[in-house]
Amino acid sequence: MKQHNTCSLNRRTFVGFGLAAALAPSVSRGKSANGKLNMGIIGSGGRGGANLGGVSGEIIHTLCDVNRKTLEAVKKRFPNAKTTTDWREVVADPAVDAVVISTADHHHAPASLAAMKAGKHVYCEKPLAHTVQEARWMQEEYTRQKGKVATQMGTQIHAGASYRRAVELIRAGAIGKVKEAHVWCSRTINAVGPAVLPGQEMPEFFDWDVWLGPAAKRPYHGGYWKGGNLNWNRRWDFGNGVLGDMGSHLIDLAWWALELRHPLRIASEGPDPDPVAAPPWQEITWDHPGDLKVKWYHGPEGMKRRSDALQPLVGKDTDLSKWGIGVAFIGSEGILVSDYGKNVLSPGAKFKDYQPPAETIAPSAGHYNEWLMACRGEGESLCHFDYSGTLIEHNLLGNVAHRAGKALEWDAETFKITNDQQANQLLTKKYRSGWGVDG
């Protein structure tokens, strides 16, 4: 089969990510002569294809994907683009101004950190990190590079009008002082089977070593990656379950509206922890300063608990069984239930003649355009890596509490769980040789 790794660097020359950083100094990237950015697309199929569409008005300089069949298909649209199966070659190329990262979760932070250190603008799919430690590293590196690189996490709904309106209602005091935000997603996790699947013959078109990346070495099996996010995201080695995935979109609304930062305590209820797989359901409570709680529910049992807790509060104003996703803000003067496209104030009789506040948040220029404008020095994107990094740090602490099997006390300043020393090991992970992150 024809080889598509056309970038000149051999992966064996890499030692961690040091070479990538050395080849592309950490300075603000420029634009090409025609004012467009040279884009490196890391992950070109699936979500990567959608994200590629969002930046296709720029110069698609390099296409990267571990599946060479995907590269062949996408290159037909961008015949002048270089191709490679190894994202480290994209990061090391000084001609690339910006990267769009749409890989499995376990590559998000390593690729983003390497790109920022190389002075490149970064768009990264959600969740921003695979571990709590990586989420903190992403915040810190963005802070170091602020003003030099523009960043954005792929929470596309943040640009929507419904979220903006919900934030305006909360901040205008429509429901008074908010004490609780309940967030949910009906999705569950199917069983994954054995921890290590039996080896299969590796297809020539697939770069298994790069797909594994930081994860522990194991024989090739298509069952790890085929089916995309809803498959590999079930395994702790590669993903973060429903909370890591959909929590990025949904808890984002509470994060934005309530201007949250770091929790003090995290407790998770659910099935017994599985060392391999994410849980099919969870109910998680984060205690924040000011006696404010954020709660998360997913899976069938989670939806039942959500309805048991909230349906009596909203009565006949809305049927929560019809809300597969949503956020309910509980305030001293009422309740606001929101999702991607609607906002319902309760009790309905009280808000019948309510005059909503004037719009105060400017309409979005578009989720991708916000980032592209920031890349060109036109302001800062809304979901930059400090904002989104704290959100993902918060969310993944919920998974740590689940895996630890107990409520955890969190000291964000020292980055430490203070009531369970052993649980601190769950904040990070081991990296396969050649794929480590040095923070």
Description of the molecule:
The chain is an alpha/beta fold and 439 residues long. The chain has two domains: 11-156 and 371-383, Rossmann fold; 161-189 and 240-362, Dihydrodipicolinate Reductase, domain 2. 31% of the residues lie in helices and 17% in strands. It has 13 helices and 15 strands. The protein has helices spanning 18-23, 47-54, 68-75, 87-92, 105-117, 132-145, 161-171, 208-212, 229-232, 241-258, 299-314, 367-375, 387-404; strands at residues 38-42, 59-64, 82-84, 98-101, 121-125, 151-154, 178-185, 265-269, 282-288, 292-298, 325-331, 334-338, 343-346, 408-411, 416-417. The strands form two sheets. Strands 13-12-11-7-10-9-8-14-15 form a nine-stranded mixed beta sheet, with helices on both faces. It has a six-stranded parallel beta sheet with strand order 3-2-1-4-5-6, sandwiched between helices. Helix 6 (132-145) packs antiparallel against helix 13 and helix 7 (161-171) crosses helix 10 (241-258). It is globular and about 60 Å long.
